[in-house]
UniProtKB/TrEMBL annotation:
Highest taxon above the source species: Bacteria
Organism: Nocardia stercoris
Protein name: ABC transporter substrate-binding protein
Amino acid sequence: MTATLDTLWFTRCPVPTATGIAADRGSLVAEFAADGLAVRSLQDAGADVPRDRHFTHSLTGLVREGGNVPALWARANGEPTRLIGLTWIEERQAILVRRGRGAVTPDDLARLRLAIPRRAIAIDFWRAMALAGFAGALGTSGRGLDDATLIDVDAAPGADQWVAELEALDAGRVDAVYVKGALAVEAAARYDAVVGIDLDAFADRSARVNNGTPRPVTVHQRLLDDHPDVVVRFLAVLIEAADWAATNPAGVARILAAETGAGATGVAGAYDWTDHADLHLDLSPARLALLGQQERFLHSHGFLARPVDLAAWADPAPLAAARELARARAHRS
């Protein structure tokens, strides 16, 4: 029996996403208004819907565009989600060091103390990001995490991004900190930390595989089974939002500032591609292979209860249908 859908929920991380663009422009609400279907952001839900649904994806009427660590974790824990799209969006990933240290190479990391944050949360994606970031840098010189000195840095669950690690760096307890995104640009300036290794400079994308690269869009199996048309239309709106973003750099910069909570300096420092933004989804073999690299890394380091079969998880049909719908709409307009 098909369940009634009164509210379609969406959630996204505070990073560049087509969902964030569509939400800011009112496109998601407008898409389903004539159906009498309410469209609500989990970030604005208040106390009526627990925020941990962003990580567990146990809310059946939810579409999630966010980091792959929680998405893979939820699937590994048995939540029947489906992967319906992947983006690859560069987010200024870097290894920071104290000013005055001098040039740092990936090989040098094996001789430094690397900050590995630890937070008491259900899935510690912050810790996973740091480990993957350092592993990516070390891997470019043929080294691995076993070659390095990893220093646990405890951070409160609600602590601001990168603060605990940068305080440890400033105090001399660690020598290097992995960071990414717009808020990291601003935080580095506050602590006078400088880029020791620019992960974005490596031509091989595999060095930057992490929580947000690639970033998945997932839905609950029940939503896909009961309301496949809603999922397709949602994806069509994301395609249209990505199309808009590709030709509206000023608008993208404004929306990213609102989405990330960073100022113009942070946005410009983290996202220098806003004049040719590409927020489009795909499920190409290349992107799935990069996600496979992340899945294996997370499982090998204990973040996943069991392996995730990406071929079984991914469903390309909704995105293919959404592309056809978006093309038909564009032709009509």
